[in-house]
Amino acid sequence: MTISLLILSISLAGVIALGIYFEIKPFNGAKTAPIWLKSSIVINLSTFVLALFGTLFIGMQEVMAMPDEVLAVAVNPEFSIGKGMAFIGVALPTCIATYAAGMAIGPIGAASLAAISEKPENFGRSLIYLGLAEGIAIYGLVVSILLMGKI
């Protein structure tokens, strides 16, 4: 498990280093990409994903290999797999609504900045449109809070 965590940390550091590299030297489609670029991104991301799944599976094996006596002491008896799945179901509305709000705010924010640069009096309207898009995330949060009361 420690080897898998070490590989996970190294590959994450590689992904972060590539992000810093792209922040310093941004890449645009006009110039040709360096030869090492595509292969290093694929290697870093695939190593990260494989190490992540390896850590997950090794952790699951350790829990499954524990004797029942140890699990009875270590695990809260009132918490079950069904309750854990219910918590995941409660988190999904917030997750999906927040993602949708982010997808909506991007184009609306860009268009509102363009509109404000041409006519500064459109500032109030653009804030209303951004607030409507952000409301999607708030609705998801409200649904999650209501569902949490049912568990």
Brief summary:
Helix content is 83%, strand content 0%. The chain is built from five helices and no strands.
Mind explaining what this structure looks like?
- The protein has 151 residues and is mostly helical.
- It has two domains: 73 residues; 68 residues, F1F0 ATP synthase subunit C (F1FO ATP Synthase).
- It contains five helices and no strands.
- Helix 1 runs antiparallel to helix 2.
- It is flat and about 70 Å long.
What string, H for helix and E for strand, traces the elements in order? Answer: HHHHH
Q: How many structural domains can be distinguished in the coordinates?
A: 2
Given as residue ranges, the uncertain stretches (5+ residues, pLDDT < 50) are none
Mean pLDDT: 78
The rounded Rg comes to 23 Å
Largest sheet: none
Strand percentage, roughly? under 5%
Task: Tell me the layout of helices and strands.
Blueprint: H1 2-24, H2 35-65, H3 68-74, H4 81-118, H5 123-148
List keywords for this structure.
single chain, 5 helices, mainly alpha, 151 residues, 83% helix, F1FO ATP Synthase, 2 domains, flat
